[in-house]
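Why does this matter for the project? Reviewers at the last site visit asked to see concrete outputs rather than summary tables. In response, this paragraph embeds two records directly. Each consists of the residue sequence and, immediately after it, the corresponding structure tokens. Nothing has been edited or filtered.
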Amino acid sequence: MNIYFQNIRAINSIQNLDTHLNIWVKDGIIAHCSKDTPTLDIDTRIIDASSMIASPGFIDLHVHLREPGADNKETIQSGLDAASNGGFTSVVCMPNTSPDIDDVTVVEYINSKAKGFLTDVLISAAITKQRTGKSITNMLSLNEAGVVMFTDDGVAVSNSEVMKLAFDYAAPQDLLLAQHCEDHSLTKGFTMNESALSYKLGLKGYPTIAEEIILSRDIMLAEYCGNRRYHAQHISTKGAVDLIRSAKAKGLRVSCEVTPHHFSLSEELLASYDSCYKMNPPLRRDQDIEAIIEGLADGTIDCIATDHAPHSLHEKFVELENAPNGIIGLETAIGVSLTHLVHSGKISINKFIDLFTVNPRNIIGKEQVLIDSGLNANLTIFDLNEEWTVDKTKMKSKSTNTPYHNHKLIGKQKFVFNNNQMIECSL
């Protein structure tokens, strides 16, 4: 690994950095990072990077690696190959595996399987044992084992008493609780967002209020229990954005994420009955999309996460009502977000980078990544203006359930560096 990026734009808000530099990465180290021109080794690969941007390595707080238990959909290896090809140097894996990540032994298993890859795996564990919403896991032991966040992702902790106990249990170590916000009594058997369109199509709907009821309850519990740390996962409605905005205005320690599909795709696509548009939470209305984009622009929404949810072909491509929820997203997140947020003029490139780097690391309390000479290279390098067409057959994920196949995007990941490794992204 010996590569020189000539005249690349380097951006990192932590360093108040936004300027064109010459960056030389050699043997996993940033050997040179300045406007000066170094004397390069004869075997150095030189790249004219005037159209590229170097940022701290991107991190995704919401990824389903499926292992253990569902390696027909994804394995830790294939998921991390997809992550690095998508431009991510870190991912947080979700606990809805089989067995669930509710015990230190499962954490140890994942850590052992995730060694040696370019992309680091951070682990979220369940709030309740077997994610049943009944008994609290040993969060303190799991935290000692390195778990960065607790969530029953895929299902909400519906019982308010159990959620209150979880906040109280998390208090001594100030642990982070996260929630898939869904009142399941309102969503059983849903296929899409509840709206005039769902009635027209004859499909069971998921009302927006089902998300907002749990989110509102959790915000109140977090405040009542002493202003505890709380993260709302993949919010999708205007009401949810408003609730987060109000909580932050009160000084509560609440954060949230949104997915690229929830600000780039709408419920209208379900009229095709294509299961690649079926997910949880479902695609929403235009006013929800507008509210999400506004929340990203004004800082209400902290970060973008993919909710990468691979499913095998035979599972996903059945009748829409019977198909599982979820899509893959690691390898399209940068292109979709640049196309729909930056190139549309909704947010700046600087804010875009913060949404994938600084903010998510702040949420889970991880050390920030710096770009400077002598430091280990943890970098995501992308071309802001490269146009490309998504081809699911070129993806590294084991599954191909993407709604973006054949979509034309502007902006593409190019190189990723971490752990003394480099890949040149191929899509």
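We now turn to the second protein, recorded in exactly the same manner.
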Amino acid sequence: MTTTFMVVEVIGGLLSGSLALVADAGHMLTDSAAIGLALFATWIASRPASAERTYGWERTEVLAAAANALSLWLISAWIGWEAYHRIAQGLRGDPVDIEGGWVLLVGGIGLLVNVVAAWMLHASSGHSLNVEGALQHVIADIMGSVAVIVSAVLILLFEWWWIDPVLSVLIALLILASSWNLMVSIFDVLIEATPEDLDVYALSADLEDVPGVTIVHDIHVWTVTSGYVSMTAHILIDPDHSGDRSEMLSELTRIVKQEYGISHVTLQLETSASDCSEDHHLDHLVARRHVRKRRKLPTFGHSH
């Protein structure tokens, strides 16, 4: 649907002389590529893990989303450059002739096509950065179609030749704005940042409330791909605790998985600091938890 309309926009842009239509057609081309890339990434991400790729191909969808976001920025730069030349040409007394009727017709059809495409993608966008990337392309196209329609109406009513390149720049700015949050989310995944909606301090405090647990340290929480969060942590336990360690581990795992929605959990139980040779990542947790927990913390040989 998107690819077919792209051809219509190219023809309409050439017949009408509208930069806004040609710019939107270029963006529709990346929409088609974005949706195709999203489908390919979803397929390849389903391939099983192996000894060489222990997480499988899960992160492929994040890379596809990054490619989509970068393509949006490149398109925005091209639109801005072409609009600058159009405006300069008009100021020299030789504006490009634009057929407002063609622009209005094609822009109206484009708005309908993009609204339908956005509706189709919206249901899955909340569960996948990959699909979110494709959706952002389509949303940018909706804004582009609205700008094209406004441009056509003003050209027909007032013969404002300059409105076409000006609204093209507006389309470019809207595309940049719509892709920014997507790029931030992608960046957080690639640097393995803690998911924004997960409080590591609260998680650590809940784990330390389990009888026999002294402190949680060397904790790492990161997103592998959309909907798949991993966690590793070292759990220092009281060596005098008489409870069953298997039951303790089961309860710790239950808290992490069921109460915090973390998919993959690796917990290491330790009875003394000498059991652990890793950086303990205590400093960024102690300051906040010390006030909340009011418990005496053990002294480790080193900290990070």
